[in-house]
Amino acid sequence: MTTRAGFVALIGEPNAGKSTLTNRMVGAKVSIVTHKVQTTRARIRGVAMEGDSQLVFVDTPGLFKPRRRLDRAMVAAAWGGAADADIIVLLVEAHRGITEGVERILEGLADLPKGRTVALAINKIDRVEAKVLLKLTEDLNERYAFAKTFMISAEKGHGVKDLRQWLAGELPESPWLYPEDQIADLPMRMIAAEMTREKLTLRLHQELPYQLTVETENWEERPDGSARIDQMIYVMRDGHKGIVLGRKGETVKAIGQAARAELEEFLGRKVHLFLQVKVRENWLEEAERYSEMGLDFKDGN
Known about the structure:
With 301 residues, the protein is an alpha/beta fold. The protein folds into two domains: 4-170, Rossmann fold (3-Layer(aba) Sandwich), CATH 3.40.50; 188-300, 2-Layer Sandwich (GMP Synthetase, Chain A, domain 3), CATH 3.30.300.20. It is 37% helix and 23% strand. It contains nine helices and nine strands. Strands 2-3-1-4-5-6 form a six-stranded mixed beta sheet, with helices on both faces. Helix 6 (188-204) packs across helix 8 (250-267). The longest helix is centred in the last third of the chain and has 18 residues, at 250-267.
């Protein structure tokens, strides 16, 4: 049997659907999905099997114009993930077309080493008419020599199977890189933290954009098969702490319940989740916080 394996980097603007596509390809919720932009920070890898091929997806942070250290580290991580991958897939939202951000990404692709296989996936195709799609496809292929173009809806699954089959055939011949039943190489502690951060983002999306992070401080396996997980939510100001806690602690309690339910479903067993909130004014400038998120602090310079 000839096996194939390799890394596929999904790149695009924030909210282009990279996390949704990763989850659709892998068939499990590996990368957090919210309606807020820039929610993916770490280079999360999801593993999918297609025939005798193993596809390892690198779900990069969205590419945008960086303003702060964290932004710069995220953008560096995204391009780093693309440069290291065997195949790159650029996701463009059908209804938004060629934005300023897409223009910047196309310029960045031109700087990658020659011979890199880059495919185009136009996502959210159900939002536009066919003639708009055709025009967008032509315009994008004029600007960059994509190996192949796919029309998909990551959310509904349209066209995803064709993309996955094509990717499987393009990967280099190689032994598999992960055990067949492994869906992600992120430590479970980080996946658990990401799930809680997703619930925080969904609940507080207006009040606290990106000024919080979650770390799993303790993970204890219990004799009855359950797990006790202690997490710390870091915020930058006392006022933010009040927002996360809510009146009489109701907000953090609801967030904890939602995160625990998802963790139990993901792990297939009972979870005891304990959340605390701590003010750390300068967490955005602490190297340790970046390594917890799988980012390089130096890339933020």
